[in-house]
Every structure is written in structure tokens, then in C-alpha cells.
Amino acid sequence: MHAVVCIKQVPDATEVRIDPKTNTLVREGIPSIVNPYDLHAVEAAVQLREKYGGRVTVITMGPPQAAEALQKCIAQGADEAILLTDRGFAGADTLATSYVLAQAIRKLNAENPVDLVFTGKQAIDGDTAQVGPGIAARLGIPVLTYICAIRSFNLETREIVVERLLEEGREVVAARLPVLLTVTKELNEVRYASLPSMLRAARYQVRTWNKDDIEADPKQIGLKGSPTIVSRIFSPPQRQAGLQLAGPAPEVARELVEQLLQRGVLTA
Amino acid sequence: MPEKFDAIVVGAGPAGITAAYCLARDGLKVVMIERGEQPGTKNTMGGVLYRQMLDEVIPGFWKEAPLERHVIDQQWWLLSEDSAVKFGHRNSEHDKEPYNAFTVLRAKFDRWYAQQAVKQGALLITETVVTRLLRDSAGRVIGVETDRPDGELLADVVIVCEGANTLVLEASGIKPKPRADAMAVAVKEVISLPREVIENRFQIQGDQGAVIELFGDPTLGMVGNAFIYTNKDSLSVGLGAMISEFQRRRVHPHQLLERFKQHPVVAPLVAGGEIKEYMAHMIPEGGYEAMPPLYGDGFLVCGDAAGMVIAVHREGSNLAITSGRLAAETVVEAAEAGDFSARKLSAYREKLEQSFVLKDLRQYRHLTPMMERSPQFLGVYPGLLNRALQEFLTVDGVPKRQKEKQILRRILKERPVTALLGDAYRMWRALG
Questions:
Q1: pLDDT > 70? residue A20
Q2: Rounded distance, CA B119 to CA A106, Å?
Q3: B107 contacts on A by Cβ (under 8 Å)
Q4: Per-residue pLDDT tens digits for B80-98
Q5: What domains appear along chain B, each with residue ranges and CATH number?
């Protein structure tokens, strides 16, 4: 089995603090982490490898410092990590990002046929959930989103059966390999890496590929390949605090009616 | 079988990184184990780093390290509730390369410093907590246990640089839990302000920096002090005092910090700033008397973990760096001899004795206990001095001779001659 996991380095949202005076986010010194859903994707791939053998390759597109995120995935049990980095990749939207990742997976597939591609269900910074499906579309393979359980996996029949976490319940679906899965945090528990794995990661040299290594079409990468325009970013307006009424029931009821009349919810 | 290293360094702060850097440079197989996500994320200090000690490790480090400003202006202010007596020094010598001291932000600096050790060949393991030292049947330290699965590592020697909170030393029976009167707690805010505003308020230019230490009212007279340090585009503003004093007075450090920022001489310096970070940390201020054993069979202790802090000179990181360097020197010699016994490693203590580290620690051994026994130094004198100067400088038609008498009478009312003489003697003795 060969699983490729696509990950993203994001700012650690749990470390983002709110300035008590200005109520704005304090971004200074916020560490970067692996997108939390992507760690569940790595865990899923590593668990399958532990059961069925094979390899787990982790890839990401990003600046040189994204190598740290890949090293973290090595500590989590991945066999190999490749950083797709090139000045030409900068400014990519989800369309250009999925192109670069798909090109890299094509190259990996030529070296060692890929059975599974994993991504997290979305990244916690952009929240678009578009890159996973975008890769699948470009590779022409099925995409199964919001995976919360893998029921069965069979390399001989080349079939995988998974559960998708939907708002109204769970959906059980089967697909033929190769397939792309985007995973939720319900899928598994991310392991606390062992010390030998941490040592391996600390020694591991991440491989890097640039735009030529993946034979990228210059028109489809970076800003040029990105039709998305972000016109404005703003915080949603804060919701007003609610009103709590307390006291003996008749008084509260009277007060409640009065409030509703005042606000025009009821008319006399 | 756990992997074996020549040396394991517990903690990636100034002491640990220095030890790992020197050992790796000399070709030893060394691993640093840090509990934070990155070196520096859990490391805190007021923010002054002296150049000399690190220059001995990485000559010219200050040309490339992420530093904030070089210090040219140092002030000491004695505060009463609403006034200040200021004393300070500025010179042009400290404005010249290679400089004397720098303000730093540890999240940036420690990360850079650790990378230098990694470049020398040290392995860095983060997000991993060392839980205790491993010993063989003879009691010799032979490695560490961490909180990771398969979390043991072996080494000829373990260098404990775990910082102020000495959980490993305590769990390993090397040191008891610290007493509340041997440990200070400090809180600090990084307050961002535009560069020009900082340069105007502190009368500095370019990369020049100013630092102010404030005594008296900021800590309500408790043994400790407040500080304001200039970074490039922020101020480090904080205060600290002995934990026992906070317990006794029943005040919280952050309440004091809020109060401090409202003080009439402080408020204009921080006005309009935006709080970027808030942090709190312990400082081992027990001094020489509170130090744990510095070495034993298979282990050495450096930096804050060893209590190497000289509070009165706000020195700690430079002692940590020097101790880390001397520990590494000792380990290299031990490795050549193939002998990691306490006897061989005792050379570390001798090296420290010959350096400023133990000389200074010994000189100030009585200072903190004396200050704790003598609350008048920070509790009474700052107010007294402020009132005396205020009276002296108020021109109100009272003849000068009469004014001098009034001032003297007031001072003697609060501290009679015998007490004044006693205090002078106590301070003289404590400063050795």
C-alpha cells in the first residue's frame, strides 16, 4: 500500500490570544502547527500501513519553514516527507495549490503507485475544504469527504468502505482504489509519538521538489494560476448579550411581556 | 534497548543550548530535550542579555542573532506612591561595537540559538518532558526517562538545565522542593508601540536601548522590583517579588503590574501601547545557600536549575551560559578520560569557583535573606527619600536651614539614628 498525505502548516489557533483591551487577535510569536485535521489523516495512513504494510509519504506546498511541519509528520510515523517549495508557488489559491499537489502525486505515483490520498477535511486557517476535492478532480479519482471511520480496506479487491460524517447522520460508502479521503477528527485518536520516532524526525532530512521537479505548467501555479480574489476580510459583528430575568414567576412573566412589547416582538 | 548518547541535555534554554552547542562542536553525540513546542516558547526573562558570556561561545553572535536593542542607558528609580527619585547612567562606550548588553525577546532569541546548536550537530527533541533521571544499581545517573512511549534514553552524562522549576531534580531526589522564600515570581507584558514613540520617550535612536529598574512602591515595598526595557517596537514591562512576600501580602503579581502601569511616572511611558504578550515565570533567588548539588555520578546541573541567579544585578542568563559552557568543557574532559564519576565531574564546580559565577553568587549570599528580614529598605526608604526631596525642592518661603531641620526630623522619626546606622551596616555586610 502506498498512501500519500497532503498536509498544511497553519498558525496555532489555540495559541491565538485576544487582547483584553482592543479585543483583537494577538498574532505576535504565534507558533505554526500542522493543521489538526491533517494529523488525523497522517494517523489514518500510518495505521493502515501498520496493518497492511507499505509506505506513507507526506507532502506539503509551502515556504522552507514548512519543513518543520513535515518533520512532525515523520515523528507521527510517516516514512517519507517531501516539501514542494518554489518562489513560483507563492500566492496560490486553492485551485493552484491543488494543481501543485496533484502534480507531485503524479510523480510519486510514477515511482510507486499510489492507492490512497489523504487530506484533512479542511484547514483551520482558510476553512475552504476545497484542496482535497480539487486534487481528486485533477487526478480523476473518486473523492470521499468527511470520513469518520474506515470499515474495511482490501488491497486485493482494491475496495475501501468508509463512513462519512454528515449533519443528518452517517453515510456508509464503498469505493475502488485509488481514492482520495478527507478526514474528520472523529476518525481516530492521534498518537503521542514515541521517543524513537521523535529522534528519527529530528535526524530526518526533508526532500524538496521545485516547480521543475513536478513539471508544473507556469501558468497554473502561484498568483498566475489563482483566479480567487479576496476583496475584504472582516470579523463578524458581535452578538448582543442576552437578557436574563429572575424573580417570582408572575413578575418575570410581566417583565417578559413588557420586553417583548418594547422590542416589537408582540403587539398590544 | 534505548538509544545511547554521549550526553543528554535536559532543557533548551541559555544553559542547555550552550552546553549542547559546545559538546556538538567538539564532536560529541548530544541530544537536547525541550518540553516547549520550540526553544523559547516557555522561556522567559525580563529581557537583558549580556554580550561577553555568549561571545565566548559564538564569537560575534550579536551580528546575526535576533536581538532587540543594545543598552546604552540604565536607570534606577525609587518610587513612592506618586513620585520618583531617579538615578541613571548613560555612556557612549556601550554604544560601540561589540556592545555590553542587549534587550531580547526570548521566543525569537532562544529559537535562533538552538538552531546554532543543531547546526553544530546537536539533536533537538521538542514537546517532550523529561520525567526523571535513570540510575543504575550503583546509583549512577545513566540516562533519562521522558513522557513519550519507549521514552528512555541513555547517556554517559546528563546535563540538567531544566530551569527554575526543578521537577526532574526533585523527582530524582537531588534537590528538595524550593521554599517560597527562595523563589521569586515575575510577570511581564510585552507592550507594542511604534519605534519613533519609544525612541522619543526614552531618548534613544536607531538600535540604542534604555532599561529602567524601579524599586519601592511597584512591589509595595516587597523584596523585588519592577522593570521597563525597550525592544525595537515594544516595551517589556514587568515586576517580580519573592513568592513568600506575595503570600504574606495576599496580592497577585498581575494586580501589581496593572497598578504599576498606572503610576504617574510610568503611565506616560506605556501610554497608547498595545499588550502583545503576557507571561509569568519563577526566578530562583535563594542564592548561594539554596543551590543544589552541582554534580554527581553521571550528571551536572546548570543555570536556573542550579539557582544561578544574581537578582540584584538582574543576572541569570549570563550565568546560565557560562555554566553551560563550563559543563560542556568538563564533559569533554571526562569523555577523553572515559570517567564520568562524581570525582571527575567535580572539575565543573572548580571551574565555576574560578569564574565569576560562584564568586558573585558567594559575594551576594546574604543579600536576599537580609532584604527579606529588613523590609525597610524597599518599604520605607523610597518613600522617605521622595518626601525629603519634594520638601527640599518646594520653594515656599520657609528658610532653608529650617527646611533641612524639618527633613532631618522627619527622617529620624521614621528611622532613628541607630536604625539608620544598623541598616547601613547590614547593607555593607550583605554586599560583601
A1: no
A2: 34
A3: 29
A4: 999 999 999 999 999 999 9
A5: 4-68+104-175+292-354 (3.50.50.60), 181-284 (3.30.9.90), 368-430 (no CATH)
